[in-house]
Amino acid sequence: MWELSHNWAISYGKGPNTQGHRIVGGRNCLFGSRPYQVALLRNGHIYCGGSLIAPKWVLTAAHCSRRISTVRVHLGDYNLQVKEGTEQIRRIHNFFMHPGYNLRPHDNDFMLLELDKPALLNSYVNTINLATCCPSPGTRCSVSGWGTINAELHPTPGPDKGAQHL
Q1: How many CB atoms lie within 10 A of CB 70?
Q2: 55, 88, 134, 148: which one has the fewest Cβ atoms less than 10 Å from its Cβ?
Q3: Hey, is 57 helix, strand or coil?
Q4: Tens of pLDDT, residues 19-46
């Protein structure tokens, strides 16, 4: 899992419209520092990320809905290639895409996943603190997930982190 620091200009409710807008860069997170971060895996490979917002609910991107029944939700995972003993794996019971989602250009790219059973909350698996208001332009925000630190490399097995200015 990685973390990244950067200045961003965003348009609320809109996601990236090309692969050239993906986030690349950052540094490795500390083990257990992002207990809300989940990995969506299909056939053992990272497919998408998300955030645990309640013991039975994950917020992710609507564009991650393809073949959702084959996806496993990994909670408390750090290095996706190593069993640390902190992992919890859940199936998806149901999913709800934003009714205004549009594949192109990714308008309202949000989806809720209902897990088959609640997560057991602990220091490695916990819910994210949801914002009570929209951040002002220039506010420093953090992003995290499994991905690449270099645009030419394959995804990292461990989590990375980043802080963004919105």
Answers
A1: 12
A2: 134
A3: strand
A4: 445 556 677 888 999 999 999 999 988 8
